[in-house]
Amino acid sequence: MTNRRNRERERINKEALGKVADFILDLIKLIFAGVILVGIIDMSVNTMLLVIVGSVISVILFALWYVVFIRSKRKG
Q1: Phi, then psi, of 66 in degrees rounded to 5
Q2: How many CB atoms lie within 10 A of CB 57?
Q3: Regarding predicted confidence, which is higher, 5 or 76?
Q4: I want to staple 21 with a disulfide (CB 3.0 to 4.6 A). Which of 9, 49, 64, 68 is the partner?
Q5: What's the sign of the alpha-carbon dihedral 8, 10, 12, 18?
Q6: Which pLDDT score is estimated for 30?
Q7: Mean local confidence (pLDDT), 49-68
Q8: In angstroms, rounded to a whole number, what is the distance separating the alpha carbons of residues 13 and 6?
């Protein structure tokens, strides 16, 4: 009985981690698109700083996405 419950909890946790991974990937895409759009619009911001900060945040989120994605696909 408890083994069955544990398997059900693990399945639910993996589904939730998969949704979180999708959300993080969407955030990465939005940040990247924002950097591109601000560069195209040519607003009065430091473009180099914007690209650097956007890239660093995207890389950090990509690393987080990778960890969450691997955990959601791991065989239990």
Answers
A1: -60, -45
A2: 15
A3: 5
A4: 68
A5: negative
A6: 94
A7: 92
A8: 10
Tell me the Cα Rg of the chain: 18
- Helix 47-73 to helix 2-41 angle, to the nearest 10 degrees? 160
Structure letter (DSSP) for residue 44: S
CA distance 6 to 76: 10
pTM, 2 dp: 0.77
d(CA 60, CA 3): 36
CA 15/CA 29 separation, integer angstroms: 21
Note the helical H segments in the chain. Answer: 2-41, 47-73
- At 56 the three-state DSSP class reads helix
The tokens describing 57, both together, are 């945040």
